[in-house]
Design goal:
DUF4371 domain-containing protein; AtLOH3-like; mainly alpha; flat; 269 residues; DUF4371; 2 strands
Length: 269
Amino acid sequence: MNVEYHVRVNTSLIATKFLLMWYVPFRGSDESINSYFKGSFLELVDTLKEINPEITSVIDCAPGNNLISAPKIQKDLVTTYAYEITQQIVCDIVDDMFFVLIDECGDVAGFINDLSLALQKHDQDLLNALSLVNATKQELQEMRNDGWEELISNVIEICNKHDIDVSDMDVSYVQGKKPRRYAITSSVFNLNHYKHDYLFSILDLQLHKLNARFDEENTEILQCVSCLSPSSSFAAFDVKKLLRIVELYPNDFFRYAGSGGVTSTSELC
């Protein structure tokens, strides 16, 4: 592989890894050269070009059919990452106790799946959606704070029931099932490996995503906008929330001399 080709492949791999990590769509509606937004993948490649002059010179001088950025190439890179992750998971599952632990952690996926299905309902009102988000955050946080003991107790019970070896939490973690003298021994104890590297990592990732998408500012905006819901004859209408929207977006409103004393949407008609 020549140096120029390696640079192009590596650049596309970096862009792919970043977009997959943050669940960002790759494609854009207009990917032409003069487009203001060509899609996240191509825009990220352009950003990498701005940061690194070597990338700029290599990509700009490459033939049009060898840029390693075509839609089919993007799909192939995603497939490659999925394969590598699957292989790593398969390697880890040789540890039977790890397999049971992952199965018991299904509650985390259940929380997120229930929330996702609820938010996709077309008749979902904003206030109910926000309450679901907050409830999911609370469940995940409670599981992180107090869920380990119950989880490991269930795992040990299942392992004993099915004659699966239970790892001693107070010894160093050993990768795989090789005899201890031949295995790769870690400086990390089993307790830290299972509790922090797996359970806490999963929970922290989900909490980070929820907090990033539903931070304090976004939540306040959604709560204010919910007062404009026409459900139940505008039962959620709240003048204070409406005024707060005006404070947040002053340029989107104009003064109307005859609007004094309005307390409900029906009075605006």
